[in-house]
Inverse folding.
């Protein structure tokens, strides 16, 4: 069966839930696909994955979607032990649940040859709500169409590429996160602090616009956004000691923001004026793993506006 890529939301995590802009890319280093087990050699992990799909099928049966589901076909495959075979780390902000949702949607929903992406996004949002309580639908949409997407913006560009001197990389916090409670926390906080929420969304949108417009000042606004996000959503950042060390040692060169819901998993780093080799050496000395997001993964890909 077809593999579905993980994703990285460069900008828009949480802010998308309030209507801000979003910019997300597929990250094919990690992916997953539906698979059928080799009976009788079914592993505990395969059984656990199958049990999750059982619960999703029950969720689907209780909800309505724009494009309907072949629910009986899904139930038949569940009975045959279908599971999600994936190397996407769970709870790390790379959309492991989104890729599973995209795989189920692609294989079991009656989607026309040229579907309306707004309808697809709404359906995927509904499906992923099974995991998170509320979902923008961005994660599974990126996996489903396997292209960079820009949400809630209309800009005069058709392709996406990173500025040549901008490094983007993942930082491993060393522990997974649990999205559902964090989303609830954000929604409560945004309701209590509307002015800070407005500033958060404004900076987020500026990052998206300037990045797509290849502005020479984009790194400055990215660093400003990273600093604001750490102050606005401190509970989402799992390692304050690490952030303080980065601020002290790498302040002019590196900005760190959430990758996914936070609370653990990966953080997303942006750097300029320093080589990735120096960045990697810095974190290695602290026994922290990093992973560079190659420009080849992103550059010159057709950008889809939603």
């Amino acid at each position: 069966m077809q593999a579905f890529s993980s994703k990285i939301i460069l900008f828009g995590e949480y802010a998308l839930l309030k209507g801000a802009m979003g910019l997300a890319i597929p990250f094919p280093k990690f992916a997953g696909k539906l698979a059928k087990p080799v009976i009788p050699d079914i592993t505990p992990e395969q059984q656990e994955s199958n049990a999750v799909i059982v619960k999703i099928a029950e969720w689907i049966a209780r909800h309505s979607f724009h494009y309907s589901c072949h629910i009986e076909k899904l139930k038949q495959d569940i009975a045959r032990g279908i599971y999600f075979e994936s190397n996407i780390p769970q709870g790390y902000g790379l959309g492991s649940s989104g890729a599973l949702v995209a795989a189920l949607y692609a294989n079991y929903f009656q989607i026309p040859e040229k579907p309306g992406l707004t309808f697809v996004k709404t359906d995927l949002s509904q499906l992923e709500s099974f995991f998170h309580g509320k979902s923008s639908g961005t994660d599974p949409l990126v996996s489903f169409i396997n292209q960079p997407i820009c949400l809630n913006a209309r800009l005069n560009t058709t392709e996406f590429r990173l500025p040549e001197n901008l490094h983007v990389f993942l930082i491993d916090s060393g522990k997974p996160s649990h999205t559902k409670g964090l989303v609830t926390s954000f929604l409560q906080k945004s309701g209590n602090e509307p002015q800070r929420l407005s500033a958060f969304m404004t900076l987020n949108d500026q990052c998206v616009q300037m990045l797509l417009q290849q502005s020479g000042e984009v790194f400055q606004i990215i660093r400003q956004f990273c600093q604001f996000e750490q102050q606005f959503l401190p509970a989402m950042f799992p390692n304050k000691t690490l952030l303080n060390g980065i601020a002290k040692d790498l302040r002019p060169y590196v900005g760190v923001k959430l990758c996914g819901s936070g609370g653990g998993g990966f953080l997303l780093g942006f750097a300029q004026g320093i080589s990735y080799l120096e960045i990697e050496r810095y974190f290695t000395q602290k026994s922290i793993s990093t992973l560079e997001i190659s420009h080849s993964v992103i550059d010159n890909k057709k950008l889809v506006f939603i």
Q: What stands out?
A: The chain is about 45% helix and 20% strand. The longest helix spans residues 44-62. The two ends are 27 Å apart (CA to CA).
